[in-house]
């Protein structure tokens, strides 16, 4: 009996080879995306963590300050604590390469103390020579030397302020000791050459054996100035990855959605295949195959598709990941792991997980229809025309309502552990609910479609109206893929439009000037600032100083922006969410916090917060919350005059220049270059260029999103064509009859086209509605909880309309094409099939 | 002429290897025995080093403190302890080195002075040396050398002059020492009133005095157990700025507290053929009368060689040393006092506690140092 079943099943496979192949490809694509995204992400995070741990070496604790560092007088105080057995004081900065866009991370540590704490960062065989302590000496990791294209003995010119600082590469760290790009200098040289005299950025501590690290960490924390934190190397390693956590989850979710659409493709193709083979299956039941056996066999068909697809997907995903790491970068273009070189680490468990996930999705997609087919009484299934009673029990609609309702409720939940898990669940439930509700919705909406009086389209439409359940499957396939497309498009477009509007508010001046594109040691000295202000053609100039603050040891630093802001008119320079609050005379001075900072640190307008700006922490009034798409760790704006008063720091990083009337930006730009000095490295861009660069950055960040989305769309279109192809095959008898009664092939094709168009039209309409709902969740829940920034919803109507038209046209064409393919067979024989 | 020269060279070389701070990469090849003409003239210090000039009279305790204007300085204590009736050798050394920096870096971290501390314990029961070391730039009160009195320290390692006596305190992984040294004799000025010529060239010289016959008492902790210990020790303090010509490949040195209260130091430098290139020494009798030996008055004759099972180097650990009329036999406390400092300093030498015999009878105790017997493998 099993042999018979085997023959039948294998026969079905052969018969539906194309469709089965599509299903396999769909699963493979979904699995591949999941594997690729996860591999790249986990490798980058892993590498990031390894780098942070290696940097800390054998240290038990790391004391770290904000970008302005901390007073070096803290060093001997901590070094003398009896629990500390070794300590290495360091200066740490991203330093731009003079005349280049990139920057190099430099750690300037006590090379003599390093042997006790971070021996891996010392040259090995040659030992330390006096040369190591020259103020212009730098050691490079092999990765940094390769990246910079320099070797021992070469010069390396970096930028501090706007000036070049010439260093000499005196040697390389041992191969394999530190895998990332890093330059190592002596702390004294780094303090002097990087303009950090008197300041330190970190201290790596080794504790005496027997000292409890956590309790000593807490004790130590009380001795540290505000904004300076003691953390374990593990926390250090995690913090590096925390910024990108939500981004990574979003990408992986997106990949899972692709897998989900793949599973739906398996489902729809299986449903239709089973409809087609209904009489066969019934025959098997009559021949004595038990229901359980039959169901198991049918599920096994799904499993077979899953195994093939998942295996293919895992291999493809690994290759994709390798490609992405080589050509796109470890951060998949988002800029999180810019300077990290990663080796792809493929954990077999991860690969197994995605493999099993692919199989599971395929089996799930196949099981529902299989069970339904197996439990149908064979006597009924053997009758012709039974197809329409198809899958779908009356209860499914209620389940669908329940799922959608639960989704709507979940969307209201807050983030879990900083991640929008409930939001994702909500989207999943709404999609599931839509699928379950689709038969009912299809029946209802089809009932409302008027049938034309005459013509071939009338026959097609009548046909569709008479078979709402079958049509529902086709519609659902379109709804799922189209709604995902729609929601992504709306979300990305909303973000982009909001970003453009935001850039308009953030870039009010005519020209922007900055010391360096990247790194932390570029700045404009007061002299350079004066020269800029005095340049002919410059009408008005505002200087901005960017520093950072460590408000929590586990979190990335918050950017402190010091720029001219007046409390009463803060909304003129910052995109505030609400009218600005003006602190009363007896209240602390105002700061304005970005949405991210407000969310992460629970700051609300009117709150009094203590911030470690300068060496003494003072109270400030939160005078407003502003939208900031640029700084994901959060930002706090403060008036520059106030900032200078507190810190004495008169340096600036950027300048916004308004032109005097009657001069062109190009003339002023060249005048600025001339006036500032030829040796000084500055970068000048027009507002348009800054805008274009920002938007290009945005597009690059979302490039990977587009790719995955495209894959989901592709799988969705597969689904559409599969369902139409299957229906066409299933209806060969009908075509035969129609041909017998005198319809031309062309007329049958037109009939099928109108059916396809109607199905797709309904699918697109529902998809738009569902996609709209999902996009609201993406914008207001997922996005807000992941990145903590708000945006307005801006649907890209033309793109949506174009896509909708494309899908309807594609559906009509596929339907016609598959009808034609079906009619190539002997239609007379097809009629006879109805025994 | 005098023994200081060898001593200086020995320790300077040891120091050079301690961190390589005093040598450029080229100069470091000298210690491997390869010919080199590198001298300090390779680099031009921002502030010139002070020269050693004839006619200067050492002032005490003023000159027991640091002399930061000189290139190099060390306080070197070696001695014997009685630990529950068993003899132990110990060595505690602080080096101060002033690197000739290329730039006058205003940073408080600028390595204007480097402090290096070194300690070793010779326990026959352990069978080999226990040793530890610390190195740090002077500054932030975490490491430094005080002027005006002896106080040199790196973190919690310290040699300090407290009125009449000295204290050495350090804690290593394998042992902790807290010892007091009480002088029983005035300082012994080496060479010509403390100016110790280093070679044929006039400018090669150092300031150098010794404190032999120090009475030692204090605490030694090992394996978590503290014990009272007592014994005798020898302190050398020497400072200079001058490098020497590099004709020697190694040197043999002894410093002995004789039981009758006299003190002997003798050394010789070996040339490439293994012969004596230079030699010297001084003997001060208990009555205070000192005699400085000319190079031809010192003779070192090896009696027995020990081969290190780890490095394969052959060390003549047993000697007959002739200084003027005095013939003295030197026997190590135990053979394996080889000091492997490759990890930190790149070299291996032998330095350990030794007994002195005159006419077959025990006559004193002190320290023996043998360098240049191990050859760095050519990589």
Would you kindly provide a written description of the structure presented here, covering whatever features stand out?
The complex is a heterodimer of chains A (835) and B (379). Chain A is an alpha+beta fold and 835 residues long. Chain A is built from 27 helices and 20 strands. In chain A, strand 6 and strand 7 form a beta hairpin. The mean pLDDT of chain A is 83. Chain B is mostly beta strands and 379 residues long. Chain B has a single domain (4-14, 59-103, 110-371), classed as Beta Barrel (AttH-like fold). In chain B, 4% of the residues lie in helices and 51% in strands. In chain B, strands 1, 2, 3, 4, 5, 6, 7, 8, 9, 10, 11, 12 and 13 form a 13-stranded antiparallel β-sheet that branches. In chain B, a hairpin with a 2-residue loop joins strand 6 (151-154) and strand 7 (157-162). The chains are: A alpha+beta (835), B mainly beta (379). The A-B interface holds A 72, 75-76, 79-80, 89, 110, 112-113, 115, 125-131, 133-136, 186-189, 191-192, 197-198 and B 19-25, 28, 43, 99-103, 105-111, 114, 135-137, 140-142, 155, 344-346, 379.
Indicate how many domains the architecture of chain B comprises. 1
**Class inferred from helices and paired strands of chain B:** mainly beta
The level of helicity of chain B is: under 10%
Helix/strand-derived class of chain A? alpha+beta
Instruction: Give the distance, in angstroms, between the N- and C-terminal Cα atoms of chain B.
Output: 38 Å
Oligomer: heterodimer
Largest sheet of chain A: 9 strands, mixed
Instruction: Specify the overall morphology of chain A.
Output: elongated
Shape of chain B: globular
The largest contact between protein chains, plus residue counts on each side, is:
A-B, 29 and 33 residues
Helical stretch count of chain B? 1
Terminal CA distance of chain A reads 24 Å
Task: Output the CATH class name of chain B.
Answer: Mainly Beta
CATH topology annotation of chain B = AttH-like fold
Q: What's the alpha carbon Rg of chain B, rounded to whole Å?
A: 19 Å
Radius of gyration of chain A: 33 Å
Q: Strand portion of chain B, in percent?
A: over 45%
- Give start-end ranges of low-pLDDT stretches of chain B: 1-45
Output the CATH homologous superfamily of chain B: AttH-like domain
The tally of beta strands of chain B, per DSSP, is 23
